Amino acid sequence: MNAGNFAARLRSREQLIGYWVVLDAPVATERIARIGYDYVVLDGQHGLLGYQGLLTNLMAIDAGSSLRTPARAGAGASADADASARADAGTGTGTGTGTGAGTGAGVGSDARTGTVGLVRVEANNPTPIGRALDAGAAGVIVPLVDTAADAARAVAAARYPSPRNTNAAADASGTGTPAAADASGGSTPAAGMGGGVRSYGPMRSGLRIGPVPAEADAATVVLAMIETPQGLANVAEICATPGLDGIYVGPSDLCLSVGGRYPGDPEVADEFNAAIELIAKTARAAGVAAGIHTPDGETAQRYLAAGYTYATVSSDLTHLEEIATTHLETARSAG
Amino acid sequence: MNAGNFAARLRSREQLIGYWVVLDAPVATERIARIGYDYVVLDGQHGLLGYQGLLTNLMAIDAGSSLRTPARAGAGASADADASARADAGTGTGTGTGTGAGTGAGVGSDARTGTVGLVRVEANNPTPIGRALDAGAAGVIVPLVDTAADAARAVAAARYPSPRNTNAAADASGTGTPAAADASGGSTPAAGMGGGVRSYGPMRSGLRIGPVPAEADAATVVLAMIETPQGLANVAEICATPGLDGIYVGPSDLCLSVGGRYPGDPEVADEFNAAIELIAKTARAAGVAAGIHTPDGETAQRYLAAGYTYATVSSDLTHLEEIATTHLETARSAG
Amino acid sequence: MNAGNFAARLRSREQLIGYWVVLDAPVATERIARIGYDYVVLDGQHGLLGYQGLLTNLMAIDAGSSLRTPARAGAGASADADASARADAGTGTGTGTGTGAGTGAGVGSDARTGTVGLVRVEANNPTPIGRALDAGAAGVIVPLVDTAADAARAVAAARYPSPRNTNAAADASGTGTPAAADASGGSTPAAGMGGGVRSYGPMRSGLRIGPVPAEADAATVVLAMIETPQGLANVAEICATPGLDGIYVGPSDLCLSVGGRYPGDPEVADEFNAAIELIAKTARAAGVAAGIHTPDGETAQRYLAAGYTYATVSSDLTHLEEIATTHLETARSAG
Amino acid sequence: MNAGNFAARLRSREQLIGYWVVLDAPVATERIARIGYDYVVLDGQHGLLGYQGLLTNLMAIDAGSSLRTPARAGAGASADADASARADAGTGTGTGTGTGAGTGAGVGSDARTGTVGLVRVEANNPTPIGRALDAGAAGVIVPLVDTAADAARAVAAARYPSPRNTNAAADASGTGTPAAADASGGSTPAAGMGGGVRSYGPMRSGLRIGPVPAEADAATVVLAMIETPQGLANVAEICATPGLDGIYVGPSDLCLSVGGRYPGDPEVADEFNAAIELIAKTARAAGVAAGIHTPDGETAQRYLAAGYTYATVSSDLTHLEEIATTHLETARSAG
Amino acid sequence: MNAGNFAARLRSREQLIGYWVVLDAPVATERIARIGYDYVVLDGQHGLLGYQGLLTNLMAIDAGSSLRTPARAGAGASADADASARADAGTGTGTGTGTGAGTGAGVGSDARTGTVGLVRVEANNPTPIGRALDAGAAGVIVPLVDTAADAARAVAAARYPSPRNTNAAADASGTGTPAAADASGGSTPAAGMGGGVRSYGPMRSGLRIGPVPAEADAATVVLAMIETPQGLANVAEICATPGLDGIYVGPSDLCLSVGGRYPGDPEVADEFNAAIELIAKTARAAGVAAGIHTPDGETAQRYLAAGYTYATVSSDLTHLEEIATTHLETARSAG
Amino acid sequence: MNAGNFAARLRSREQLIGYWVVLDAPVATERIARIGYDYVVLDGQHGLLGYQGLLTNLMAIDAGSSLRTPARAGAGASADADASARADAGTGTGTGTGTGAGTGAGVGSDARTGTVGLVRVEANNPTPIGRALDAGAAGVIVPLVDTAADAARAVAAARYPSPRNTNAAADASGTGTPAAADASGGSTPAAGMGGGVRSYGPMRSGLRIGPVPAEADAATVVLAMIETPQGLANVAEICATPGLDGIYVGPSDLCLSVGGRYPGDPEVADEFNAAIELIAKTARAAGVAAGIHTPDGETAQRYLAAGYTYATVSSDLTHLEEIATTHLETARSAG
């Protein structure tokens, strides 16, 4: 799918599965991008990728994605009925209903399949967010979001200024771009778009998700990580942030945040599970996508069954270490 | 193990297991190097590593290797009784018996465990061979060896000139370096050492396997790939090349060489298996190490059981693709 | 010209023409640097250059610049009569007159021609500003300056602490460095120098623009981008920031800031042109340099004729795409 | 078009237009690849690309190519009537017909549009040829081909061994170069395929042009540069080399080869033009593609009109220098 | 020594000697790491290392460190009697005793020798601090610390959240910075540990200093640079920051801070020396390590004798320039 | 000095002093290039530089060289009276006189000072030689030259074809190597120029040493290493090779070549010294430059006094290791 299509699917809480890359190994990333994942995340925070690594691996994802055949793309995805919840909320505040869906439909009518690249940025800061998007990412996963204000800052960093915000004159033409939806001030998926502070310079992204700011905004997702004690406490407010497309659970930090001595600490399993459940429920109520980081396909499948709408299997480095260990043990075993 | 210890073990046909790296991803290579493999090969021919990649990943192997604990190191290795066959052959030609073992013992008495780095060089050419060794490789796997003359060229490229060869005066002191063994003209493992054409400049390797040429030669292995029709036809002569430490089967090319339309072509399975068996038997008779490239630990285990003395599991790129595919299928399956 | 000479010319509002680089292609940058542009800007915000790219391309500019022949250098430059306006303002506030000119003259008496490198930094943040300058940039273009406080922060980040500020004791010696000028508190070009927060470590720059802080400050320009609604509203205050050498218009973002739906939106042409004119007039009144980003030489020429004192033609990436497209069309046309 | 389609079009002497890249600037290469050129050549001989540069830019071409719309692709191409001449000759000589054509047709029936990447390798040597192809090139341009034997070596380096050559009893001669084995196979486009010495390891190329050797061979073009006095003298024999898909004129070196004191020397214009004409005529007679290096679209168009079947516009570096110079002159001119 | 051992020695004010690297030259860094320095600092602020440079050179330090022999390690180190002062103070304030010491003892009992890598981060910002530690640094030197609040931010950025802080009811205030929580924990070396904001993802560091947060914290040192006028004024408060392991004098900036016109300005020698003395005395009183940057071994030796507990010789770039200059002068001199 | 000037000075056997770089650390290389050495050699054989490293460091040399002041340049150089010997010999053999000298004089009259970059290429092979020169090297040092034929191949690889050789009827033999053609041209410095096989594409070099082949040849030096037993035996014939500008002793390999067990082996000191003396004498008789590799300025000074005309101090890596070791020892010593 292209970036617009991906954004629409994510916003409609369709089930999506991704892969998490920490290695700066573009040929491996390219191969993973053709396997059929809906998205691949490049980890700019804890991963081993500097700016050049992000740029080259985003290119690798595009190269690999072009090799996917339609048959492999997201066959199992199912629209989440709760997506309407958010549109309803939008209706409550005004006239903006349908626009988000409309945008999605418009973009989605281009049914080209493919895998998009996301970046987990190094910090909730406009500079790395802008650079990841200019380099071609279809969206950002923003770490360490503690409050709704943090989430709003992340959203603003990923969106261009809205004509409405800067030049009060009408913008009446209504081209059907997200900006039109903004006119209603509603909280449809596109409602928070525009009004951002992203600086203009879409070096790579302009070729793929369009150089027109409103169109770029419509095709760009912003996902806030819930992983700190404060973020957990404020999850409802964060989910309600206009323009935020979803939240994303970082289980390692979340486990520490509920008192674990280390990621996976069994002594806090109950607290951890309660937090996981709460986050999914809150996102569902808010009508935003609920994502989670997982170590393997089985865990991803389990979380998707339990209410999460997207899940990422992680990571190339740990999987490689794991499979290389297994092969060594097998090779050393008696025949 | 250090490079000298590795060379001694390989020459005595001890069973060794390695891993094959094609990605230029040093942090992954470092992790693999600490798992407990006896060696890691960096593929400079078909792999995605240029010169800088080889250099950095050899450093990564050294960094990762230093994390290995003694308990993990090659516990299952067993000396091959046939190693004596080659020493016997050496005896036949003169007085050189035992020197190879002696050298090995000397080096081996330093029982430090660890994983060494090898390089499959891009070609049988002194330049890439010299650069791989200067960069810190404990040995080279040389592709496309067709004849004993090819093998001799590979050996010469990896060994420094011998004092004997260049300065006819006695060199009578006999320090116990390989050069002394050469005096006998025999075919002990060290017989071909010295007399090479390697140029002096051990930038990284000098720190690890010694700056003294004869010592460096003793700690450096040269392995010839058997993969072409000519190489298969000449395998006995190749194995008999003085100074060659072992042969290494490249099954993909070998399969094409016995008439396969593609690697693994079942129509030539008989021819392929016959070739595999012949090569192992020939190496055993010659007393040199017999290695083979395998896709997984199970195959490696099988070949080791069938007479090969070292086997490499390959590769990071394909294993990563494989495990990522499996995780996606699992994630998409019904719970 | 060397960095000091460039700073003097820019501060005296001489007409200067630059080129804008977004590609990390040092050999191309080197060639552009010898064509005869007064400066080359490396884009660290939207460009495709990470830290290593900035470093290597600054070196490329120095290498290319050394190939320029005197005859090619800035032949068309004409001193702007309004430069005196600023010096006058300086006189009005005290005794600082002439210092800026004096510094410029001293540096300028070294009439070596050449092209200097500037960096458009990724953010108004001391870290990237300091690293660009340490790497050898003759100045920085700082994006997204909204207020005079923002501009002052940019200036401080690019200047070393002043002795006066830190050690109240006299500093009476008056070496004629910019710091002496600071004593007057005036608004001469050097008035804002010193008093900064730049940390000392001029790895590359020390060789070219001097390791002595005051001299480095004198040879370093700080240019604030006017591109946001707030920046436009505050342009007069920004221009009045002590130590700021000039402003720089980012037309794409500025167009969005006046309500455009996309850069170049014809519906806001009047607002856009009014803003452009206002900015030039304000800079002229303040006696600081007025620069602008342009897509081609013709536009640059037009803005210079209309009151801008420096203009940058942008960019290598778009020009290359453009010329390659033209060649393809020509090649495909009937002969 | 994909690699197979490109190969089929080139072999049928359809008119193709390419672009020549010497800069290691992947984002620029990606943009050029989407403009609509039939191919982009990465210059590994005189260009500024090392191995990593070739690898990344081949990936960039694939990424950019996926953005091309069908409408832009090669509309002006016209099949060359002489292509049949070669097929006839092949039929005439015997038993080789069918296989190559069949494979080619199969691949060619996939009419996906796009731009392929070629590499002008650094030397006529199996190592750089194999590495360029493994890295994903759809073909190689081989410099400094002096003789038919040189051309045969280039072909062999780019083609996998043929089952027929290696398994069949017929390969009795021992030396059996591919050319010898091919003698029976005629001169159909695919006739020289197989029988090569390429080693198996299609890291990136396997995903795009198929891991099956015969299919990869069918989708891989080999082009010999005519640029030396000897190459010019032997052009007919070179064109007749089985498996060679075309020749490519290097005008700079060719001009020196006909006695020019520098490329473009007017004193040897007659000799140069005669050589150019001779080469085109010879290629046409042999039924192979005739390509030429040109500085601009106009020259490319002229050569295509004059009998060349493909032409490359060169290069990013010189075009960028040229356009930047023009912009500076315009900016400095009076308005 | 491993990272835990290094931290214990630094905290006990043992004398340690380090080397300062600004070049991105991993093979040189590897060699320096085996010479026998207690630590090597990679300069991420003024040095020529981007993120990839830090990562690769940290790996180089680990590779080089593994070559050190026990005999060479820190022979001259002597425990500082004042280290007990701090532990006492910790005991006096309450319940925090034991944990830090226990962890330290456990780690310290592993007396493996070696050289650890530190990073002088580009700014007092959680992102570069976290990335340096994830990449394998045993600690960070944080520039431009002006206040105790700055120091507390640096400490928090380098430490994982403490279970106590996040799970316990006591964290009721909401804002609850780690420092507040630590107030009860005393000022033992480990007292400030935990309670940080470091995000979990120890890609390289996890292999060496343990993936368990509390253990990683125990093995990670945080050092605050004293170099600004404010920092100098607040040095006692900074030294008292819970969790801070030491301070580090940056003489160049410190000299400017006491009014020097340039680093080493003789006119402020008295002020400079007074500051140097004050800082050492303050650190000693607080029981934290006192470090300083020096140009050569002689100066390092002098400062160690004068009360500093660790000193870094700087740098590869200036030393290389210096020795190359000396060799040239010698070579040009008459024999 | 520029490349032409350097070539002229080297050919006239003026005394020149260089520095040897093995690290890929461009900022260090840039600094070394401004110290005042006549040349800097980048080691592409044993050094840690791949192609990108050579390219970037050649640029660094040009950047650093532009900072040299005239006063520092080569003050001590003294023309060698024997230079006339060679010119005489050249005159004696025929018609080739004048061109080389004329070109040299023209270039030399530009007395701009500076440091040029040379490359010790990885092998005596036209590909790395051509790439080093295209990347901007002023000359090549070619390793492992055994015979005059080897030297002639090196010369041919570095020189463009001569109009005379390619256009003249005389080239009737067909094989016509340059050496044959040169036979008539005598042994003036320029006699061997032209007649080479260098392919045209001076990407960086064209800007500095001219795009006209004959001019480029005149400004390009070719130096053959004498380091093997064969090279030593054939040193007179090698020195007599037309177009060869000098020889260069590699003492490490030469010591092994005279029977040393390791570089510097005292047991072969007499043989070594005899060889050193013989080589210098032979070069002097042949009128070519005699260079040698040395570890320090003192040794360089000694060899220059003993008849060598240029000497290189080596290397950045060992000097850095040495000075860092000294600083550590000093720091650890009692005060």
Q: Which properties best describe this structure?
A:
homohexamer; alpha/beta; TIM Barrel; eight-stranded parallel barrel; 8 strands; 12% strand; globular
The percentage helix of chain A is 40-55%
Q: What sequence of helices (H) and strands (E) makes up the elements of chain A?
A: HEHEHHHEHEHHHHHEHHEHHEHEH
Using the coordinates above, name the CATH class of chain A.
Alpha Beta
Radius of gyration of chain A over alpha carbons?
19 Å
| Beta-strand proportion of chain A | 5-15%
CATH-defined topology of chain A: TIM Barrel
Number of strands of chain A: 8
Set down the secondary structure blueprint:
6 copies of one chain form a homohexamer.
Chain A: H1 3-11, E1 16-21, H2 26-35, E2 39-43, H3 51-65, H4 83-93, H5 99-108, E3 116-120, H6 126-134, E4 139-142, H7 148-158, H8 163-166, H9 178-182, H10 205-209, H11 213-218, E5 221-226, H12 229-233, H13 235-239, E6 246-249, H14 251-257, H15 269-286, E7 289-294, H16 297-305, E8 310-314, H17 316-332
Parallel strand pairs in A: 1-2, 1-8, 2-3, 3-4, 4-5, 5-6, 6-7, 7-8
Helix pairs in contact in A: 1-5, 2-3, 6-7
Polypeptide structure, described:
6 copies of one chain form a homohexamer. Helix content of chain A is 47%, strand content 12%. With 335 residues, chain A is of the alpha/beta class. Chain A has one domain (3-333): Phosphoenolpyruvate-binding domains (TIM Barrel), CATH 3.20.20.60. The first copy, chain A, has an 8-stranded parallel β-barrel with strand order 1-2-3-4-5-6-7-8, surrounded by 8 helices. In chain A, helix 1 packs across helix 5 (99-108). In chain A, 70% of the residues are buried. The interface between C and D is large, with 43 and 43 residues.
